[in-house]
Specification:
Structural class: alpha+beta
Largest sheet: 5 strands, mixed, barrel
Helix content: 40-55%
Number of domains: 2
Number of strands: 5
Order of helices and strands: EEEHEEHHHHHHHHH
Distance between the termini: 52 Å
Amino acid sequence: MMNNSEFILLHTTKYGENSIILHTLSREYGRKGFFIKSMPRRSATSLFFPLSILEADIFETNKSRLFTARNVASRYSLTGIRNSIGKSAITMFVSEVLYRVIKDGMQDAALYDMCVRNILLLDAMESDFSNFHLYFLLEFIISLGFSPELHDLEPFLDERLPLVADFIGKPFSEAMLVPMTGEVRNDIAERLLKYIEYHTESSVKVNSLKVLRELFAV
């Protein structure tokens, strides 16, 4: 059976000489891996960057849980992300969080729609996006079903709670302007990841967080 599907790319794994497995999130399949056979390296470079929103023909089979993807193409160009080192670093971080937290087989159309909306929002922003990953983490926590009140976050945020409370209480455009150093952002992000770890009972080690700290040091 063949189905045309849109999905967000979270991660890729090399398979053999020139084949890959796409680890994806989609409305139809949730978190799932798709196999691509004999993919040219140039095509892989141009298509498969973190949080790419792609579409492909998905060939389902009863013989394997790993479906095959063919005719892969970009759904959105996302040039605003690809042309910005800072935005690209944020997408690396977000994709790694999604890849490590969302388990294979987990399906949630609302979560997928939230991710697409935020990817397109980040792509369209012209400036003042250094706080964006914190905004995304808070939205992600709500999408996972935790919907925390500030007192739920307090054991994890500790002395950072007043700053996060101020951040949460502002409209999006104002929240992006809340002044924070790279060290403070990094610390808050680590604490929010600990909150996610606690509620999902999983280890969330995100290596790309240190890149954000270096890029948004001020």
